[in-house]
Amino acid sequence: MNRYVRVLIYSVCVFLLVSCANRENKSNVYPLTGTKAEKAVVERPIAVMVNNHPKARPQSGLSKADVVIEALSEGSITRFLAIYQSEMPEVVGPVRSAREYFIELALGFNALYVHHGWSPGAREMLEGGAADYINGLNDDGSTFWRADFRKAPHNSYTSFKNLKKAAGDKGYSLESHTGPLSFQTDETTPEEAPSSVRFHYGTNQVEYHFEQNVNGYVRKSDGVLTTDMETEEPIVLQNILIVEAEHEVKDHKGRRNIDLRSGGQGLLLSGGQLHKVSWKNENGRIVPVMDGNIVPFVPGKTWINIIPDLREVSNSKGEGV
């Protein structure tokens, strides 16, 4: 074999290896954000109940959550189910107690469920084996701690280093296959749409505003910009899904049942555009639907707001959307 043939064969082999590597890299994406990953994603999602009482703001670690689902707990106070996979913050909290519908939502991602305390119904579900969970209620201080700059119950924090150790001690797997959300593959150009929308959870007002300079949405709670306590930077989101679901108060403490199964009407803010959609529960996840097909998200972070009445949503001019 002469020198030129050897060089040609070597060049072809290098080309094939590089092509295979490029194809592999292109296929490695985070399933809950649709963004590129350096390797195959095997990390199991971790879902943390995060306090949203005014005395718990600003929270730590919310900016790194792939998906955040907000729903009412008691009264007009909401809680966040923050689902982490592509990024794991050093600190997350304040951590709050479990509710049955948040457990159901975590199960849709096969997530390890993290909480501090529980309602009677949530306790029955978790102790009955519904999900792998880590509870701060009887923690000896090795997984959760109480911050001294806030008062209980708004000061329970944990770290992902602690959570991974606790999961190992309990024999929980931290690897799993995560089914991907649906994401757009082509870039979209923002159309003229409401620059902001707002709605209320009782007395708590939520507002989302699209910012061209960050190509995403920022949020305000009761007129105050939602930031991450650790970075002091605004939380930037690529998708906001607002869905209407039936709420029912079930006990004297104001605990609720929320219908996560029946589907209904919704609004999707994505890429600077506003879409009127429906929603359905697909394998435990709330997803937007139009004409019977799932509407793909823009790659990035997604927040889902579950509210009792979609008619409460208005634009920046106070007009219904």
UniProtKB/TrEMBL annotation:
<feature type="signal peptide">
    <location>
        <begin position="1"/>
        <end position="23"/>
    </location>
</feature>
<protein>
    <submittedName>
        <fullName>DUF3048 domain-containing protein</fullName>
    </submittedName>
</protein>
<dbReference type="Pfam" id="PF11258">
    <property type="entry name" value="DUF3048"/>
</dbReference>
<feature type="domain" description="DUF3048">
    <location>
        <begin position="198"/>
        <end position="304"/>
    </location>
</feature>
<dbReference type="InterPro" id="IPR021416">
    <property type="entry name" value="DUF3048_N"/>
</dbReference>
<dbReference type="InterPro" id="IPR035328">
    <property type="entry name" value="DUF3048_C"/>
</dbReference>
<feature type="compositionally biased region" description="Polar residues">
    <location>
        <begin position="175"/>
        <end position="187"/>
    </location>
</feature>
<dbReference type="Pfam" id="PF17479">
    <property type="entry name" value="DUF3048_C"/>
</dbReference>
<keyword id="KW-0732">Signal</keyword>
<dbReference type="InterPro" id="IPR023158">
    <property type="entry name" value="YerB-like_sf"/>
</dbReference>
<feature type="region of interest" description="Disordered">
    <location>
        <begin position="171"/>
        <end position="194"/>
    </location>
</feature>
<feature type="domain" description="DUF3048">
    <location>
        <begin position="32"/>
        <end position="173"/>
    </location>
</feature>
